Amino acid sequence: SGQIRQMEEVKISKKSKVGILPFVTGFEEFAKNAERRGDLDKAYIKLIRAVFNNVEKVANESQKTPRDVVMMENFHHIFSTLSSLKISCLEAERKDAKLKYTDHLQSYVINSLGQPLEKLNVSQIFMETRIEHSGYQLAFNKQELRKVIKEYPGKEVKKGLDNLYKKVDKHLCEEENLLQVVWHSMQDEFIRQYKHFEGLINRCYPGSGITMEFTIQDMLEYFSSIAQSH
């Protein structure tokens, strides 16, 4: 109960990033050094639940570090700890920690990346074109589409990604080493959005020859060179 009280009293600096919380590493130390006895099972469960609740509490109160990052980093650490210690009574909590980590990783990726091609999301450009649509209307839409695509030259996309990398680097802590995992997930999400728009162009404007100003290969090169240059 002393450990639980300490968790509840943890104060987080408003000026520095949160990183791995002291009571998360404290639980790891306790679990590594404790004897494996049946009567400890209840103590483990009570303690890990308090750890979960307090990670969430700190994440909700954090001002400097985004909530998703606090959750992602700390639940990744808890998942790794429980995976290496193999405490059978905490198997459900191990799975839960993994789920929380992956959910918040995905949420952070989507919220940070946003819609890098958001101007293409204009519904009038991608009207489902049917035979009855007049040639004039289609010609207008093609023109409109070409204009919007020109707003996404590869150079601008790369510049936006470089700024994004710097922002992510500021949010994440070094000790959990998740920067490359996050960056790779962002690459996957960007490719997914790119393919979505490519599919819409092919479906709505078959045979028009309209393509994006950069390819998936270019995009992979942007992501890779940005990661290597920092």
UniProtKB/TrEMBL annotation:
Q: Where is the Exocyst complex component Sec3 C-terminal domain?
A: 2-207
Q: According to the lineage, what is the superkingdom? A: Eukaryota
Pfam families given for it?
Sec3_C-term (PF20654)
Family annotation (PANTHER family): EXOCYST COMPLEX COMPONENT 1 ISOFORM X1, SEC3/SYNTAXIN-RELATED
This chain belongs to the protein called Exocyst complex component Sec3 C-terminal domain-containing protein
